[in-house]
Amino acid sequence: MTAVYLQKILKSLLVIILLLSVSGCKKKQESAEPLTPRQNEEPQYEKQAGTTLDNVEASDVPFLIQDAIYNKEAYESETSGQTVAKVLIKYTQKIKAVIYKNGKNAYLLNESNSTLVNAYLECYFGEAVRYREKNNEAYKSVSYDDYQALYGIIPTTKQVDGYIFTKEGIISVTKEDRNTYTIMLDGEVVGTNNKINMKRIGNLKDYPTFESLSMRITLGEDFFPIEIRLNAKYKVSMALVGNANCNQEYVVTFRALSEAGRSILENI
Length: 268
Known about the structure:
Layout: H1 3-24, H2 61-71, E1 74-87, E2 89-102, E3 105-113, E4 118-125, E5 129-132, E6 140-142, H3 144-151, E7 170-177, E8 180-185, H4 187-190, H5 192-202, E9 209-219, E10 225-238, E11 242-255, H6 259-265
Antiparallel strand pairs: 1-2, 1-11, 2-3, 3-4, 4-5, 5-6, 7-8, 8-9, 9-10, 10-11
């Protein structure tokens, strides 16, 4: 029996142990104190008359982006990427999501899959929130407050991919070229709602702890993003398995609301 073959067997056994550990404690994930979802209390950013990509101050850019997304009447976004986690073994969690927004209505489909965790979340945001966590189950209807307590992020609120840009949460803003900026963020400050979301979707024992967080954002002329490239490093805690170091990378692409998106939003 070769060393390579033995290594494969050991790796398979570790995966089985992890799967049994995760499934066995799925209903017992608890943290010391539930986080309260954060509301964006930043005032509407006052864009100076004549501000363009050619003369804007770099420090103003994050807030112009945040307001541009919030004020955009209709758009859609698509997310694709992965999280690589090391917990006894290294495994990859694939990420994909789509958001359609038109006025105060929105639709979200979020799917995340790996050997250890498979998550599904589909939501309609209208007068209330209808959501389901499996694609073959009935929708549950809850208030916005109740939904945010569970999942943290509401796509029609003022945020950038769930993260709330604040002056104290922005470490640096670097201009890469005329319409591309890299924003370094303090995830522990801007990521409260993302922590809630990640804990729920990942069935974590406790909220993740951010070590680093950055976004490389390419902008249109109106400061509405064309693309966001996110990189985050954080630690998570899984029951029985213990702590895992995670490296998350994904791309969010924005575009005009399609006819397919408008059709889906008609169901709200």
